[in-house]
Amino acid sequence: MTKADNKKVVPVFFAVNDSYTPYLSVALSSAVKNSSPDRLYRAIVLHDGVSEENQKKLRALAADNFAVDFVAMEKGLESITDIMSNRLRCEYFTLTIYFRLFIPTMFPEYDKAIYLDGDVVVLDDIAKLYDTELGDNYIGACQDHSCRGIEPFERYFELSAGVDRSKYVNSGVLLMDLKKLRDLNFGSHFLSLLNTYHFDSVAPDQDYINAICADKIYYLSPSWDRMPNDRNPIDPSPSLIHYNLFAKPWCYDNIQYSDIFWEYAEGSPYRDVLRAEKDSFDEEKKAADRETLNFMLKRAIEISAGEVTFKKIYDSGVKIRL
Domain with 19 in it: what CATH number? Predict the structure, then answer.
């Protein structure tokens, strides 16, 4: 396929490991179901060890106008190691959260693309998001409303990431100007900062994106990244639901928008797996989640008061933003 042909395709990237394939199946099937028959789409799953069996199940969700492909990410990220500052939710290490940062370099055939986390349900034609004009901005994203009203996290956005709490964005839904990011050597700049400062973080990839792209972010309609949070009212017509942090309908009852997840999960080849996970999520696992949240809050406070933060290094004159 030539670059000219690629301009007709809506590229949608995901990044998962093998354990996340059941949730990705729901995201993929919802995106396919709500696609336009007049457009062409390509889901590109960047992965860290997704089995052939699971790849086959996910490829079966493709449609005539919606391809599903897999690209293994096994080499080139050796400098990103399992240390606390690189752990998701301060809890576990997975390279997959960093894959989105290398899309511009890895896929020069595309000048623009969408990245989605695997824990989403797409309720509108994803081409509408792709068609959004970014102007001179590097990315389009939504404000992170999952932490709204949680003061330690909101202060962390400002004191650590160096971004006003009202401007800090969630990295689970990104519209990316790949050409601009390539021209700016975004991936190399990220690795240079990572290897020089090893910034402590409770949201590693997300903090880097906010710090590096500050003032060059187009703020999408929040409908494209609705995250369950009882502090926020229900959106009657969301375009995309993102079950961020601990708000997982496959773990908990009474999660906002959980009925939407289970509606699309009915058509998933992993429906029984998802139901079994929900049934087995006992009080011990819920207590572990509460403990992790408390640890994240503690870390957010500690990191904000630390000597090496994005804000303090930026204020010292070091180039953080592109």
Answer: 3.90.550.10
CA distances from 154 to 59, 151, 268, 297, 302 (A): 39, 5, 36, 10, 14
Q: How many helices (H) and strands (E) does the chain have?
A: 14, 9
Q: Which two tokens stand for residue 102?
A: 């290398």
State how far the Cα of 257 lies from the Cα of 143, in Å rounded to an integer.
19
Nearest-angstrom CA–CA distance, 288 and 266: 28
Structural domain of 49: 3-315
Using alpha carbons, select from 154, 129, 117, 138 the residue that is nearest to residue 26.
117
The beta-strand segments (E) located in 49-182 are 66-72, 112-116, 120-122, 139-143, 169-177
- DSSP states of 109-147 as a string? T-SEEEEE-SSEEE-S-HHHHHT---TT-SEEEEE--TT
**pLDDT of the residue at 74:** 62
The strand pair at 9-17 and 112-116 is best described as parallel
**306 pLDDT exceeds 50?**
yes
pTM above 0.85, yes or no: yes
Running DSSP on this structure, what letter comes out for residue 63? B
Give tens-digit pLDDT for 104-139: 999 999 999 999 999 999 999 999 999 999 999 999
Place of tokens 């839904």: 173
In total, how many domains does the chain have? 1
